Amino acid sequence: MRTHLDCLPCLLNQALKAARAATADEELHRHALNAVAAIIPELPMDMKPPEIAQQCYRLVYEVIGDNDPFRGAKDAANRAALGVYPKLKQIVAGSEDPLLTACKLAIAGNSIDLGPGFDYGSMDDIVGTAVRSPLAVDRYAQFAADVKTARGILYLGDNAGETVFDRVLIEELRRAGDAAIMFVVRDRPVINDATLDDALVAGIDDVAEVVSSGSDAPATILSQCSTALLELYHAADVIVSKGQGNYESLSEEPENIYFFLRAKCELVAELLGVAVGDAVLERGRAAD
């Protein structure tokens, strides 16, 4: 997905949010906005939105002198999600199709996103949404069939807190088949994206091998990934891609990718043929 003009004001809003998360100093807020505004005319519009976001966040972090301004919010999300983990397990165990229910919960967990202007509410709201709402795009049947025969699953994580919901799904994936499962995190902090520390807090290392993408992009940018990650990516039988950023960066790739996300902006919602806030389990079009 290429960058659209609508993405540019969103970047400025995100820059201001990051600056305010780090400091109450309005002068620094202004400097951060000015710095991002200054590079916008030079940004190639054929870049993918997460690539541009990466440049903007690096600049903001340099200006405010904090490379992880959302650390407190990430910690809070991790604690809150761990608090509902027993409830998530109970919901899955009591459902007619535990794998489907775990998929829906994992998608609902993608609501925990501080990047776009999207209010995810409380953890109870997230769980309730998953239980009540159907999938607006539903490729579950093909996904379930692929999982049963897969030898390797690469799970591209997204946000802190969301990783607890991912753990629930990974536990069901392990029951559904015999695949080795690798869980990918960001190499360094960006927004509230999950790093190694967040995956460990969620207990992901108990159910999958945790690996770094090798990049601090808020998505999986293949040109920036480590050689080790690329080898895993190309060898995987199934790729679970969490979040809107990963959809923006990988929607045109040919691998067998399943996109798990809630649509958080009008552009992405339009591309997917859904409404903002809808739950999506889509398969990469290039793989069909």
Distance between the termini: 18 Å
User: What is the element string, with H for helices and E for strands?
Assistant: HHHHHHEHEHEHEHEHEHE
Described by the principal axes of the CA atoms, the overall outline is globular
Total helical segments: 12
Strand order in the sheet with the most strands:
1-7-6-5-2-3-4
Overview of this protein structure:
The protein is an alpha/beta fold and 288 residues long. Helices cover 51% and strands 11% of the residues. It is built from 12 helices and 7 strands. A 7-stranded mixed beta sheet has the order 1-7-6-5-2-3-4, with helices on both faces. Helix 1 (7-22) packs parallel to helix 3.
Key descriptive features of the protein:
single chain, 288 residues, alpha/beta, Helicase, Ruva Protein, domain 3, Rossmann fold, 7-stranded mixed β-sheet, 12 helices, 7 strands, 51% helix, globular
